[in-house]
Amino acid sequence: DDPEEFARLIDNKTKAIYLESMGNPKLNIPDFAICKIAHVAGIPVIIDNTFGAGNGYLIKPIEHGADIVVHGRRNEMIGGHGTTIGGIVINGGKFP
User: Fold this and answer.
1) Computed over its alpha carbons, how large is the radius of gyration of the chain?
2) Does residue 81 contact residue 75 with C-beta atoms inside 8 Å?
3) CATH code 3.40.640.10 for 3-91
4) What GO biological process, any one, is recorded here (predicted)?
């Protein structure tokens, strides 16, 4: 989660930075300064907001610098069987 560590690791092979808004299983929250570092390098930030409490109720990744937000959903929590999956990808308006 150290933004400076991310800056040191970015090179010409880096295509994107992928973060979780709330990590699984510890529910840790990243330092969103990582988004600024990525943007200075011209790299898009993808944030998985699956655990972001109701598709953005608590954490709104685009407001924190995300370029793309993904949400994944499974029904394991409802029926326990994992028979249905779904998801969504949201463009923050920075891609044609």
Assistant:
1) 14
2) yes
3) yes
4) L-homocysteine biosynthetic process
CB 87, CB 73: distance < 8 Å? yes
Q: Show Cβ contacts of residue 83 under 8 Å, excluding neighbours closer than 6 positions.
A: 75
Closest-CA residue to 39 (of 6, 71, 5): 6
Q: What is the pLDDT of residues 47-69, one digit of tens each?
A: 998 877 655 677 889 999 999 99
Flag whether the pTM goes above 0.90. no
Which of helix, strand or coil describes residue 73?
A: strand
The closest alpha carbon to 66, from 46, 50, 52, 49, belongs to: 46
- Angle at alpha carbon of residue 49, lines to 60 and 35, rounded to 5°: 65
Provide the residue count of the chain: 96
